[in-house]
Design a protein that fits this description.
The chain has six helices and nine strands, in the order ββαβββαβαβαβαβα. It is α/β, with parallel strands linked by helices. Helix 1 (38-41) links the parallel strand 2 and strand 3 (53-58). The relative contact order is 0.13.
Amino acid sequence: MDKKKLTFPYEAFYSISHEPTGKEQEIWLVFHGYGQLSEFFIRKFLPFADENRLILAPEGTNYGYLKDFQGRVGANWMTRYERETAIANNHRFLDLLMEEVLEKFSQTPEIHVLGFSQGAATATRWAGRWTKPVKQMILWAGGFAHDLILEQARDQFRNTEIQMVFGTQDELITAESIESQRAFFGLLEKEVRELTFEGGHELNIPLLQKIIKKEG
């Protein structure tokens, strides 16, 4: 018995703060975490969208019930099963999404990327091999993917401002995982700003505002 695969057109979803005018100075590409949906995740960022700032939230292409076999559904970026295929699908989706959005612009605006939880690894894995520069990368309650091609990522993120953000009561963030990320930052030859807040595995809106609006 052989198991084979077939490539076919597939529809993927994303949420956007408003139709781009081509005059925005910043695009914020925000990646949700495991079990979330883009239309709910983007709501945290909508207060910061304006004529100069476009918010774009892609949605993971794998779905499942969050509990048992009914009720709320959430998306995720991948599982262990057919992992490499999911990664390749994510890259094609995100490349095409950004290509279509950037067609509206005569000049490429600043690209800011925020990955929350599982979305952090997906964001770094994609951005680390993208063809355009990333102004800022924010790893919120997550970190760099462990399988990045180091030389490629070092070159891509050479001029990228990187911040790591986590809650002091986040039960999913361990001291070991933080040290592992710090070690990887060293391999990237990057100085990374670490920010914390009183809270758990969540977005903290006051701190998010300070980061997006560059208030400190």
